[in-house]
Amino acid sequence: MMPAMMLAAGLGTRMRPLTDHVPKPLVKVGGRALIDWSLDQLAATNVDRAIVNVHYLAPLLVTHLAARKKPAITISDETNALLDTGGGVVKALPLLGNDAFFVFNCDAIIADGASPMLGRMLAAWDSAALDVLMLVHPIETAHGFDGAGDFFVEADSAMKRRGNMPRAPFVYAGVYIMHPRVLAGESAVPFSMNKIWDKAIAAGRMRALVHDGAWYHVGTPEAVSATERLLAP
Asked: pLDDT by residue (tens digit) across 191-220?
């Protein structure tokens, strides 16, 4: 089973004042820390290893994660320098290995649809043909998302950026599978993963998988309470 990289080092500025004293991945939604929603899904899919990068209020996150038994957690320490999404993954590559791995943001709750979301991604992954497989969600049912959309998805699952169009039908859902070969030549310096996605799209080696369950973006304090209302039984 491929490991997972959890992007948990951000400053969480949009989540203030909730993040004045805790890092964003520890903000609780429905009684559970945001990062635990994703880690619990990984554990249920028998992913046994997760690498978590830390920076802001790192000791709190490290202590919280130490209490978990599954998946096993390894910390990628970015306390000296925040490396953005791309640089953070490059720094963690020695911990992730030479094969494909999941990458998770820690600001979304992804509810399974007809079948487990991670299982669908694993079934759709083709290591020979793809460098990136991204989960996307229809903008019409993207709870907590207030943007104009990110991608168009073709019939063959190929992706195209929104570009200058006023609106795109799909949003990045916060999780993807990638192969480390697409990061060849990159250094552990601050850069956005958007650079790598654009490279993979241009090469025809990035595809989308449309999520068939519910999706909740939790990026602001207002989104926390709104999501809790939607998740309530």
From this structure: 999 999 999 999 999 999 999 999 999 999
Ramachandran angles phi, psi of 52, nearest 5°: -120, 120
CATH topology classification for 4-231: Spore Coat Polysaccharide Biosynthesis Protein SpsA; Chain A (3.90.550)
The three-class DSSP label of residue 194 is helix
- Quote the tokens at residue 36: 């635990």
What pLDDT shows up at residue 178?
Answer: 98
Q: What are phi and psi of 213, to 5 degrees?
A: -110, -165
Structure tokens, 58 = 């790192």
CA distance 127 to 191: 24
- d(CA 209, CA 113) in angstroms, rounded, equals 13
CB neighbours of residue 44 within 10 Å: 13
Task: Round to whole Å and give the CA distance between 22 and 223.
Answer: 17
What is the maximum alpha-carbon separation in the chain?
A: 48
* Residues 5-26 pLDDT 10s: 999 999 999 999 999 999 999 9
pTM strictly above 0.70: yes
The pLDDT value given to residue 146: 87
Task: Give residue limits of the domains in the chain.
Answer: 4-231
Could you write out the three-class secondary structure of 63-124? HHHHCCCCCEEEEEECCCCCCHHHHHHHHHHHHHCCCCEEEEECCEEECCCCCCHHHHHHHH
Q: Which of 81, 103, 98, 108 is nearest to 24 (CA)?
A: 108
- Quick one: which of 122, 10, 25 has its CA closest to 55? 10
Q: What does the block give as tokens for 102?
A: 């999941």
Task: Please count the residues of the chain.
Answer: 233
